[in-house]
Amino acid sequence: MEFADFQTASFFENPYPVYASLRAEGSLVPIAPNMVMTGHYDIVDALLHDRRVGKAYLESIRARYGEDGPRLPVFQTLSRMMFSINPPAHTPLRSLMMRAFNARQVETIREIARTTAHELIDAMAKADGADLMASYALPLPVRIICRMLDVPVEDAGALADDTRELTRALDAVPIPFDELAGPNEACAKLERYFADVIEARRKKPGDDLVSLLLRIEENGAKMSEADIIANVILLFGAGHETTSNLLGNALIALHRHPEQLHALRRHPDRIPQAVFECARYDTSVQSTVRTALEDVEIGGTTIPRGTVIMVMLGSANRDPAKFDAPDRLDIARNDARLISFGAGIHHCLGYRLALLELETSLTVLLERLPRLHLTALDDLQWRHRGNLRGVKALAAQW
Fold it and tell me: Which structural domain range is residue 372 located in?
């Protein structure tokens, strides 16, 4: 297979036939010099748990973008984020971040999510239809993360736009080099914004997430300002686009399987399980990247040290060797663990928050708009993003 197979219009509309071809081609498929790709669940799971396979982030950028790639500011900032770092540096950083997250009470976040969902639906319900992405799925998580960071909700739109542009640089399949100017500029704007937030919190601390990151300490270690800025940008991005696209994809999947939607409306107590299944069926984060830190044997194949491995999460979630009838949405499914939030030491730190937001937002939506239905299921415009799957708009009426 070639990178080009993962950049076609048909792939962006429906990547799963391509993933089936990837799995059929082998366990670890060469995709470029010193680079392989896998879409098999068991191999993906083994790779994500294997400490001999980790993050050589700037080396993977060099493999995809050439010698000039690692020097770009956007990749320098991304290299400081928690998901780009290996132990031992990763261990204290994740521990500090977990302490900040654990300091947030789940029920408080749930109430923020519920209040935000009702506010957005109050505005939408004045009409008989709306674009659910623009009016609900996109603003909901970004408003929640703004409240957690205690930054003005009025800034949410601009922050979301910059985050969306920055995350283009996270695509496992490289984007054209000349298009990296946009992510570089967006990254610089976000860094300036959160540097100002940190300065304000130093003068007047609060109970927000930024203040907690400035305050927490473990074994005498504290996060540097550069680390806080990079990882607050990570939290903003991870708490925004991934969740909004998961919600949009879940609504599409449920409406394309009306019997499942009907069952969910009759039994709303199944929403947590339905959210889990939707996250398996069509996850927003489709891939991640690892590097062999030494020679590693996985699935009967030796991966030489330094090999960059494209790990296709979306493919693993549809692997028939792991899931019964994987292309069928089944909100009663309980036969295997999804891998949408990663695994191992880089398992998504905010996955509980994401699931809580999805459960709350879907519950409130179905409660408040019981006659809601999507009106353009046959004319969806999927974003041309290799890593983050979602639609540009989602027309609905009620």
Answer: 60-281+329-397
